Amino acid sequence: MNEVPLARRIVTAVMLITFFGVNLFFMPGFVYGAIVICLIAAGLYEFYSLIEKKGIFIYKYFGMLIGVLIPLTIYFKFEPTKGWELLFITTATLIFFILQFIRKDSSQAIVGISTTLFGIFYVSWFFSFLIKIRFLPQGTLLVAFLLTVTKMGDVGAYIMGTRFGKHLLIKRISPKKTLEGAIGGFIFSILTAIASKLYLNHIPLVHIVTMGAIIGILAQLGDLCESLIKRDCGVKDTGEYLPGLGGTLDIIDSIIFTSPIFYYYILHFNLV
Predict the structure, then answer these.
(1) Alpha carbon 230 to chain centroid distance?
(2) What value, to the nearest 5°, has the Cα angle with vertex 87 and ends 122 and 68?
(3) Considering only CA atoms, which of 261, 262, 230, 246 is closest in space to residue 53?
(4) Which of 255, 272, 179 is nearest to 215 (CA)?
(5) pLDDT tens track for 145-157
(6) 224: closest CA among 164, 177, 166, 184?
(7) pLDDT at position 253, please?
(8) Alpha carbons 113 and 159: distance in angstroms, whole number
């Protein structure tokens, strides 16, 4: 597969940032929630499709159903008990075992159940924190901060890695990611975070910089984690929806880990 030109990849990334960053302030909450849920459904479908290519039996569509119900319960604030999501996933685990009981073939039972549950955690539960963040005071601004800092880190890593990359980061996982790109993405994330002080003036600068640094690191770890999954499954991209950015998982991979950590950081230091 030919490498996508740098300019084309950057333009696509900037379009994504602009769409979510600008329209975030104008779209109703239910539209925002619907977009997040659609991204989760598409991401889970891609993830499970990758696993199926390895010949592993999984409960694909039931896993997607559980994965969609989690953000729905969060959006509608359906929380009959504290930590409802974990109770929900525990129940789902029991159901997966029951489904395995009625299956004629017991092969791949452990790996099938484990992989299906991992997809729910990895894609659905983690990404659902975007809805939790939106519900916080000034949640729209916080989501804008998270998305711009994360995605500008992606852009910075790609620019610096393409122009100056010489030392491979982890060749066996991602043969094109470089140390120079990682440093560039980290710096871009911090600079973008500092610039956000213009609209998050209630948050002390030390927290702005710290969050920028944390997001800058976690975003690249998220990208590497997805690269590891794709490498194991023998594919380059999870899809071809947007030029140079691949499928849904390729787009949201850097946000999967940044969103829950960002949410808990905000709550821990009472920054809302």
Answers:
(1) 15
(2) 45
(3) 230
(4) 255
(5) 998 899 889 889 8
(6) 177
(7) 87
(8) 40
